[in-house]
Design goal:
4 strands, alpha+beta, 10% strand, 4-stranded antiparallel β-sheet, single chain
């Protein structure tokens, strides 16, 4: 008896009805007739005949399309159950062994060829490069937010207020003039940094603002 060939097709393990016919000693057309009868009975009972027998075609020596069936393991079970004697026993042993062997081989990790390994390595490299690009973009976005959107926190506001107070009090003026100087300096800080309040100054501009305050002189003095 010839070895039965089991292959995976559309996610299902199957074998060709021509091989089954050869192993069971039947004419292929006779087996085809039996399978059609089985399929008709299954369909009449509202069962999926495709779980057992899948209509298929093969190309003969004349390059013409001929019908055949692909049998699943359940289909082989059905054919074997109709057989008796030595051929039935040998066929059952063969298809059970072949299906189990194919199932095990599909469960094992696939060994990649050198070219497949190279393609897989290149794919991983490209994916890693893309991920690095995304991370860099996210870092740039965070940095942009930190530099251009985050304003002074409470502690930084106090530092700026202290710098203003030091500048005003180091100027030799009377108390009334000092109040005016505070207003003038805060107004010029807002104009200089284009903000509605000194609290809206960007964190990245804090040191620039403090240097500006340190070098500031009131207009009547300058």
């Amino acid at each position: 008896m010839n070895n039965l060939k089991v292959v995976s097709k559309d996610g299902q393990l199957v074998t060709d009805s021509r091989d089954v016919a050869a192993m069971t000693g039947k004419e292929h057309k006779e087996l085809m007739r039996s399978i059609r009868q089985y399929s008709s009975i299954l369909t009449g009972a509202k069962l999926r005949s495709l779980d057992f027998f899948v209509p298929h075609y093969y190309e003969d020596a004349k390059k013409e399309q001929r019908p055949c069936f692909l049998l699943t393991k359940k289909g082989c079970d059905m054919v074997a159950n109709k057989m008796t004697g030595e051929r039935g026993v040998l066929f059952t042993a063969e298809y059970v062994t072949r299906f189990e062997k194919m199932e095990k081989s599909m469960q094992q990790p696939k060994l990649l060829s050198e070219s497949e390994q190279l393609r897989a390595s290149l794919k991983l490299t490209l994916e890693a490069h893309d991920q690095i690009g995304l991370v860099k973009q996210e870092i740039a976005e965070v940095r942009d937010i930190a530099e251009n959107q985050v304003t002074l926190d409470y502690g930084e506001q106090r530092r700026l207020q202290k710098a203003v107070a030091i500048k005003v009090y180091e100027l030799e003026t009377d108390p009334i003039d000092k109040r005016k100087l505070f207003s003038e300096l805060y107004r010029e800080i807002k104009d200089r940094f284009a903000v509605a309040s000194y609290k809206d100054i960007k964190r990245k501009d804090l040191q620039i603002a403090i240097r500006y305050i340190d070098g500031w002189l009131p207009r009547k003095v300058s």
